[in-house]
Amino acid sequence: MLAQLYKYRWQYVMIFPAVLLLFLFNYVPMAGIQIAFRDFQIGSSIWDSAWVGFQNFAFLQEPQFWIVVKNTLFISVLKFVFGFPAPIILAIMINELVSAGFKRFVQSVSYLPHFFSWIVVAYILQSFLTLDGGLANDLITKMGGEPIFFLGSESWFRPMIVSSGLWKEVGWNTILYLAAITAIDPQQYEAAKVEGAGKWAQIRHVTLPGMIPTVSIVLILSIPSLITVGMDQIYPLLNPANMQVADVLDTYVLRTGLQQGYFGMATAIGLLSSVIGLTLVVLTNQISRKLNGEGLW
Amino acid sequence: MKRTSGEIISQIILIVLMLLLCLSVLYPFAYMLAISLNEGTDAAKGGVYLLPRAFTLINYEIVLGNEVIQHAYLITILRTIAGTIAGLMVTLMVAFGLSYTKVPFRKSILSYILLTMLFSGGLVPLYIQLYNLGLINNFLVYIIPGMFSAWNMFVMLKFIQGIPEALVESAELDGAGPFRVLLQIIVPLSKPMLAAIGLFTAVGHWNDWFAGAFYVTKQDLIPVQTFLQQLLSAQDMSAILGSNSNQEALARGTQMQNVTLMSVKMATVMVSAIPILCVYPFLQKYFVKGVLIGSVKG
Predict the structure, then answer these.
(1) From B206, which residue of chain A is nearest by alpha-carbon distance?
(2) What is the DSSP string of B121-144?
(3) Domains in chain B, start-ordered, CATH in brackets?
């Protein structure tokens, strides 16, 4: 055994940084979850803080918390309903383009927004939607309507999130589907043509079935992210005016924890969502085992 | 091949739809560019859609003359370079070490890594740990915690396992140790994979605003994206005029009157977006390959 360990000593040297970094930035914080059950103040030691039982979970009785839960689920379901089918449809459309050059052009352009931050996306929304000469309100007033304060509106918040999310990621998410389509045997199309199948029939009976394995993998992998709705996207657009619909679990933790200093409570909320997340991942793995015969790991 | 008229019509509809899609992607940048090159008070009246109406460079003079922005740029560039190199080196090294299937405890180490992908302590305990390690208000907070990426490691591991073992074995017979094998055999053969992962890592660093917003309070440590995030909700121009070195431009009072917060904001965001727009066409061939390497399940 020792001889084996010695034989691979350099491999251990190579692996060690990962063990150390994960220990410092993943495992120590996991042990820090006990803050959820302690009365902790920053600067003091976690281990010396007094135990307070479930006192930090009092947020469960606050109406605001349940509003946040509702917002989180609402936004994630909306994003899924629009965001999941859109790249599938777009991939099929791109694939049907006859000109190879134009196809490449469309792909390149549609991947572009993926490389910009959500902050830039927020600026784009602000520039179009501002009351001071923004394009949207400019057109609305020209057509005789009343200007709308989109960025501070509760009813416009969700459409804004869904559409800007689509704008940023729909093209990028076609990559896997386009690869799946490319892998379809051209003979299948030939056979379908011989049997007199038109374009629609070919898409229905050859392209779509060829995409199914990829679609199901993407579907399965998106389940765990149902409770994390992209704080990166939401936080920059969050303001007091739309708070009642825009506040989600991640932003709630951020505000109560890092900004207001309720470390115990924020950790407790974080723990709750981590547990739900883990449950979803394990469930997903079970589903994947049943359907594909193998799990995610 | 003969096409039916139905096919031609549907092809035309498809092309129009795709052109609209491309337009919706590109137009916002053209629009913001026009606003940023226009006098602010004039743009606020509306109607500037594609070309500036009252052309001016004053917005860019203000932005580029701002010391905070200049410094934020320096931070962004430094962290992108250092973070990408450190991230690639550490993660590749780990992946290569783990590619030796006979390493004792390999399975346990893999589980140790995998578990961190499934469960996390959450934001607050991480913050407290960063605080205890002295990483709050420290440039290294941008580099060290992200140096090892479990996800990238598994992608790299998968890739390395695809390299013929005979190459590694023959080098070992020549007396090369693991580090020599890594540098002389694995790195040259992994170039496309390293380019792709390096690109994603670099973009991640370039676009990250979160660390700068919550792990750092000193203004001279924030990156461009965090500056943008703070400016997004600014109510007046003090955020940007307060620390301007370009007093000459500010002295031209008549021009300053025509500057609005929105026009300066647009110039700032364009300054952050233009580098990406410029390098994007050259990097395309790497990232598609990168996504596909990552999608092959390990």
Answers:
(1) A117
(2) --HHHHHHHHHHTT-TT-GGGGTS
(3) 5-65+244-295 (no CATH), 67-214 (1.10.3720.10)
Asked if A119 is an interface residue toward chain B (Cβ–Cβ < 8 A), one would say: yes
What confidence score (pLDDT) does residue A181 get? 94
Q: Looking at beta carbons, which residues of chain B come within 8 Å of A117? A: 206-209, 225, 228
CA distance A5 to A105: 53
Length reported for chain B: 298
- The verdict on A163 touching B (C-beta cutoff 8 Å) is no
Over residues B200-229, the pLDDT tens digits come to 999 999 999 999 999 999 989 999 999 999
Give me Rg for the CA atoms of chain B: 25
pLDDT at B298: 34
pLDDT in tens, B30-83: 999 999 999 888 888 888 888 999 899 989 988 888 888 999 999 999 999 999
For residues A147 and A137, give the distance between their C-alpha atoms in angstroms, rounded to a whole number. Answer: 5
**For the CA atoms of chain A, what is the radius of gyration?**
25
Q: State which residue of chain A sits closest to B228, comparing Cα positions.
A: A119
Q: Which domains does chain A have, with CATH numbers?
A: 56-292 (1.10.3720.10)
Q: Which two tokens stand for residue B162?
A: 């695809």
Residues 26-55 of B with CB under 8 A from A: 26, 28, 31-32, 35, 43-49
Closest CA to B157 of B197, B212, B202, B116: B197
Question: Does B161 contact chain A (CB < 8 Å)?
Answer: no
**Interacting residues of B192 by C-beta distance below 8 A, sequence separation 6+:** B286, B289
